[in-house]
Specification:
The protein is of the alpha+beta class. 20% of the residues lie in helices and 22% in strands. The chain has a single domain, classed as HIT-like (HIT family, subunit A, 2-Layer Sandwich), CATH 3.30.428.10.
Amino acid sequence: MDDCIFCKIIKKEIPSEIVYEDEQVIAFKDIHPVAPVHVLIIPKKHISAVTEIKEDDEAVIGKIYSVINTIAEKMGIKENGFRVIVNCGKDGGQEVKHLHFHLIGGKELGTKIVH
């Protein structure tokens, strides 16, 4: 999608602080972090939301969870724990219509994140 901010980050048209990248997935620091570690992990293929995942996307979704573990270890939050959040749709709080996974940690998160 031409107007998708995450697609522009993938194409390097918008700068970001990339912490991981391969041929299928890119991960970068959130510009409005809610914790010391707040990374967005996204598939390079444009998938609008969880509700748009198709059978042929299953491999990349599994890959994303593997990448989450890699990043959690790299950023020192794997041992104490972290949270993975995927928002879906307007009522779910999805602000960018490109599937993305929030990896949040680096402090005790409690039962909810409020911002």
